[in-house]
Amino acid sequence: MEAVLNTKEKKAKQIQSLLKVERVVVSLKANIPGKEKEIHEAYILLHIFSSILLNKYPEARLNVFNSPEGPYCLYTHIKEDPHSLKRAFIEIEETHPLGRFVDFDIHCSDKSLSRSDFGLTNRKCLICEKEAWVCIKEQTHNPADLTMIVKDNVHYYVKQVLEEVLVKSFLLELDLEPKFGLVTKSSSGSHQDMSYEMMRSSVFTIVPYLIEMYEVGYSIDDLKVAFDRVRHIGKQAEEAMLKNTKGINTYKGAIFLLGVIMTSLGAFHQSKFSQDLINIIQKMTSNILQELEGQADTFGIKAFQEYKFYTARHEVYYGIPSVLEALSFLNRYKNRDQEALMMTLIHIISLKNDTVALKRAGSITKYEQMVDLISSIKTFNIDQISQVTNICVKENMSFGGSADIFIAALFLDLIVDHLA
User: Fold this and answer.
1) 375: CB partners within 8 A, 6+ apart
2) Is the dihedral of CA 161, 163, 166, 167 positive or negative?
3) Span 102-135, pLDDT tens digits
4) Of 152, 154, 403, 411, which is closest to residue 259 (Cα–Cα)?
5) Predicted model pTM
6) What is the three-class DSSP state of 304?
7) Sign of dihedral through CA atoms 105, 106, 110, 116?
8) How far is CA 352 from CA 65, 205, 358, in A?
9) pLDDT of 318-341, one tens digit each?
10) Residue of 97, 93, 20, 88 whose CA lies nearest to 55
11) How many CB atoms lie within 10 A of CB 277?
């Protein structure tokens, strides 16, 4: 009890100190029942709603604090009228699927605004229709049951968002055209055994496995154990994909790359956002390059052993540098329109890290010639892109490895406002 009182007193002093130079201070905390307030879900809730606030008020400055009462955030430099702020945050609390699990408070020099100032009743209990403070005072419900409601709702929301963002990332790549021999809505490109419908069906087949990989990262402390587990899940995803396509490999590389990212994102959330996502990827895959010294049972291993070619294993070992380079390039563009997406894909291809394209080329010389041809496109010119695409199809070239990098970059671009 003393620790709780000390925390509240410290927080109050922090707010009063800030109000000496600020017109308004916004505080955000998660509503976590019971004694254990510093659960993983509290940090996920803060991240979700902090992202909402910072998108709405980009000028705001954020300070994050940990305490026995759970983590909380204080925001300053917001110029909005305090009453308008409170109305905006009440709407978020009332309408967001997780809104009832957080509190936005508006602090001014003379008072803190409450729901009653706007003619609203107090927040309801998570289980019954009574006001929450009544159930807390009377200890009506088991705190463990209340906490489980929070956890279940947060997990359901996270999985839903991950699924939506994964599907959107795949389809943004798939719907882009023309595309240098890759499958599009209007063409099978250099893949006469594939179709748009097959690729789209594959996406919905493998996404549940990628969600499962996230859950492994979230639930297992040991990254090496988690990685072993998700590689097994990855094999299951490949088998499901091949069954769906009657033996055609549509997204094997994407399963591997996104599987590593999803597992690491789960571990990132488990760490209460205290570890760096890229460091998690590197720690988890720190032994993976040893596989390149063994039997060349994949073309990637063969390409490394014969040409010292950069492979998907290198990509995760070094912390997905190609994905981050692609994301940085994409961020040069304000909108995610055809120009931004196409020029980003061209940039990825120019990095020359595509073992899938190397295999189709049959030689390093032809591969580099085709990459140089695509890289010669310096500005968005759909006629030039179409001409080069026709050459790629004629030469039976396609850049599936680059497409995998592209999908992963799109995923990180989309997920950052939600969960990363």
Assistant:
1) 346, 349, 350
2) negative
3) 999 999 988 898 888 887 877 888 888 788 778 8
4) 411
5) 0.93
6) helix
7) negative
8) 44, 29, 9
9) 999 999 999 999 999 999 999 999
10) 88
11) 19
